[in-house]
Structure formats: structure tokens, C-alpha cells
């Protein structure tokens, strides 16, 4: 019986030490982000910072990241295309790396999760970069481009991020939607 209690304690300790990075591209095609996060350098830097798991939502992309079971203490890497809801993935994440969609940004900030927003440079008239850059300037998140993701992760100080003030993001989302020509909800 003693070894079973010890086993349960170890399993609890393992679960407590789990630190997951959740990457989301939303419903878009953003292979540049998936490729950037799938490099050995980025995975090594995440592991160096204490992260144990990397879960990548690849959306409509064609690039398939390398899965890893965590052999030899390496980072566990998994991916999926779409989910009916990413809310649970966001809640269980220790760090979120996201495309610059306003819904993903505000949902992550509402949950109080550290966030790196990666701007999709392939989008024309990219209003999303303006939102991400403004929120980064206010120190609510980090903003990067795919080619600078490694540097952003290496240089980030999550303690320097300021909580996003609780409130209703709906007016901001409606403003963005009006700017794009979509009706208010």
C-alpha cells in the first residue's frame, strides 16, 4: 500500500509541474506561426523556461508539426486542426501563443493568461496588428512576427505584463467589426 500512495504523490507532483504552451491560429491558415513554433530552437527555449507541453491548433494550415511524446525529458508536442471550443485549452495553458484575432486575444486576456500575439504578415490591410501592437505597448501582452518568435520568447518577462482591466470587450470588438464593415452583434 505504501508504494501506491507514493505513486499517487508522484503523479500529483507530475501534474503540478505540467506547464503547457497552447498555440492557436483560430480558423485561419497561418502556417508561418506553426512553422515558427515547431523549430527545435523555439521548443528548446520553451523547455528551458520550464514548459513541459506544447499543444498547437493548426487550423486550415497544411504544415504538420512534429509530434513528440516527451522521450528523454523533451517537450511533449501535440497538435489538432479544429475544436468545437478552445476555451478549455486556454484555461489549462500556462502560456498562450496566438494569432492576432481579437476574439482569441480578449478571451486569453480575460482569463489572465500570459500571451504572445504573432502577427500574420500575409493578411492584407492587417488591422489585427494595430490591436496587438497597442495592447503590447500597454504591456498586456507581447507582440511578435513569426521570424522573431524565438527572440520574443527568450526575452519575455511574464512578471512585467499588466493584467488587462476587467470589463466588456464587446465595444472594442464592435468597433473593429464596424471598421471592417460587419454589423454589430
Automatic annotation (TrEMBL):
One of the GO BP terms on file: dolichol-linked oligosaccharide biosynthetic process
Pfam families referenced in this protein's UniProt entry, alphabetically: Glyco_tran_28_C
A Gene Ontology term for the protein's cellular component: UDP-N-acetylglucosamine transferase complex
MF term (GO), any: hexosyltransferase activity
InterPro entries: Glyco_trans_28_C, UDP-GlcNAc_transferase
Recorded superkingdom: Eukaryota
Glycosyl transferase family 28 C-terminal domain span: 20-169
Protein name: Glycosyl transferase family 28 C-terminal domain-containing protein
Species of origin: Linum tenue
Amino acid at each position: 500500500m505504501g508504494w501506491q500512495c507514493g505513486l499517487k504523490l508522484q503523479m500529483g507532483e507530475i501534474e503540478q509541474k505540467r506547464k503547457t504552451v497552447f498555440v492557436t491560429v483560430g480558423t485561419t491558415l497561418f502556417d508561418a506561426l506553426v512553422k515558427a513554433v515547431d523549430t527545435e530552437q523555439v521548443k528548446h527555449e520553451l523547455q528551458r523556461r520550464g514548459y513541459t507541453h506544447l499543444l498547437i491548433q493548426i487550423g486550415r494550415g497544411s504544415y504538420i508539426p512534429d509530434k513528440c511524446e516527451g522521450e528523454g525529458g523533451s517537450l511533449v508536442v501535440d497538435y489538432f486542426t479544429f475544436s468545437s471550443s478552445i476555451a478549455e485549452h486556454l484555461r489549462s495553458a500556462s502560456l498562450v501563443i496566438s494569432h492576432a484575432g481579437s476574439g482569441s486575444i480578449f478571451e486569453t486576456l480575460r482569463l489572465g493568461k500570459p500571451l504572445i500575439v504573432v502577427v500574420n504578415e500575409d493578411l492584407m490591410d492587417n488591422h489585427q496588428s494595430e490591436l496587438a501592437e497597442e495592447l503590447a505597448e500597454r504591456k498586456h501582452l507581447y507582440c511578435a512576427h513569426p521570424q522573431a518568435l524565438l527572440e520574443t520568447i527568450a526575452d519575455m518577462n511574464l512578471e512585467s505584463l499588466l493584467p488587462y482591466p476587467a470589463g466588456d470587450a464587446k465595444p472594442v470588438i464592435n468597433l473593429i467589426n464596424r471598421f471592417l464593415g460587419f454589423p454589430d452583434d
